[in-house]
Amino acid sequence: MDKPTVSVAILGQTYNIHCPKGHEAELKESAEYLDTQMREIKASGKIVGLEKIAVLAALNITHDMLSGRKFARSNEQQLRELTSQLDAALTHDTKQANE
């Protein structure tokens, strides 16, 4: 499969990244998000060193992603429970209507 090279800039450094065809925009959006996160950490002045900034940004992004997954799973469980309750109520109503 042909993988185009996309240039992205993160904290003033340019990186040429190979990515699957059709995913260039997603890669650029991801790089922009990472760049923003790293710039915010750097601007805080509390963390020194590109490697430490990158690791902290990766941890923050991973935490946000995992929290989002937990929230989505919680919502899915609530939806299943509501669907089950609705099915039970409809079954009960149908039985009463047929009696």
TrEMBL record:
InterPro entries: Cell_div_ZapA-like, Cell_div_ZapA-like_sf, Cell_div_ZapA_N
CC annotations in GO: cell division site; cell septum; cytosol
Keyword field contains Cell division: yes
Pfam families registered for this protein in UniProt: ZapA (PF05164)
Keyword Cytoplasm: yes
Subcellular location, record wording: Cytoplasm
BP terms from Gene Ontology: division septum assembly; FtsZ-dependent cytokinesis; septin ring assembly
Main location group: cytoplasm
Alphabetical keyword list: Cell cycle, Cell division, Coiled coil, Cytoplasm, Septation
Family the UniProt entry places it in: Belongs to the ZapA family. Type 1 subfamily.
Entry function: Activator of cell division through the inhibition of FtsZ GTPase activity, therefore promoting FtsZ assembly into bundles of protofilaments necessary for the formation of the division Z ring. It is recruited early at mid-cell but it is not essential for cell division.
Quaternary structure (record): Homodimer. Interacts with FtsZ.
Entry protein name: Cell division protein ZapA
Natural source organism: Marinomonas posidonica (strain CECT 7376 / NCIMB 14433 / IVIA-Po-181)
